[in-house]
Amino acid sequence: MAVPGNKAPAAPPPGLAETELFATDAYRRDFDATVLEVDREQGRIALARTAFYPGGGGQPHDLGSLRWADGAAPVTKVKRDGGRIWHWLDAPELPGEHAEVFGELDWDRRHLLMRTHTALHILCGVIWTEFRVAVTGGNMDPGKGRLDFPLESMSTELGQRVEQRINEEIGAAREIVVTFLGREVADTDPALIRTSANLIPAEIDPLRVIDIVGLDKQADGGTHVLSTAEVGSVAVTGTESKGKGNKRIRLEVRPPSA
Ligand SMILES: [Zn+2]
Residue 7 has what pLDDT? Predict the structure, then answer.
């Protein structure tokens, strides 16, 4: 909804919501699709649309399965390649071009990745609020992840303080919104500048932005939960110094604390 005096928010790029289903609906766990291209050599197929996240921005690709008229197979890998999203199938025979398939995500794994990804953005927001430094790197697996920050010092106490602050933000049940921002707006947003969104090539317009309202905003292609409350709870499981001005924080997501 446009606010008078403000530019109307940019819509998703044309066709995105119909082809990359995960980009606008992270909760889509199954879908029908037509096979666009078959690559028998590599044992992979491209679909006209998909809910499988192809990996990127630190979030691993999804797993799951595909079924078609005369076959079914686990999806073992998903990746963007040459402008298409390819699904690797563990099957003796791939479905043919134009075949209709039904795809289903390993939802338990995907939802855990959504909670984990959101937890890492909460960590970014907490570190920015407390120390005014931005994340420099990281890694993510289902249920756990780590991020690096240019902090001068690190301690167990600091880790405990960060854990407490993350769980406060989870308790605050902050809303998480996916928006698409035109570059002329995004490149002047202080929250996006501090997370280096302005360094993304200018031809990527609009930017997909994950906004944990009031806490953290960054350009991001990944899938997130709708509220920080859905993360459950977080334990900081490690704090390490990786050298001068580079400190690492590890976390795990857990069920809501009683
Ligand atoms: Zn992210």
Answer: 56
Distance from the alpha carbon of residue 33 to the mean position of ligand 1, in angstroms:
27
CA 241 – CA 149 distance, rounded (Å): 10
* Secondary structure class of 104 (helix, strand, coil): strand
Cα(69) to centroid(ligand 1), Å: 37
pLDDT tens across 36-71, in order? 999 999 999 999 999 999 999 999 999 999 999 999
SS3 assignment, position 177: strand
Coil, helix or strand at residue 154:
coil
For 131-147, write each residue's pLDDT tens digit. 999 999 999 999 999 99
Distance in Å, CA 220 to ligand 1 centroid? 5
Q: Which of 62, 214, 66, 58 is nearest to 128 (CA)?
A: 214
Whether a cis peptide bond, with omega within 30° of 0, leads into 206 is yes
| Ligand 1 center from residue 44 Cα (angstroms) | 27
Whole-Å CA distances, 97 to 21, 22, 33, 224? 21, 23, 11, 32
CA of 181 to the centre of ligand 1 (A): 16
- Amino acid 5: pLDDT: 52
Ligand 1: distance of its center to the CA of 117 in Å? 6
User: What whole-number distance in Å separates Cα of residue 237 and Cα of residue 250?
Assistant: 5
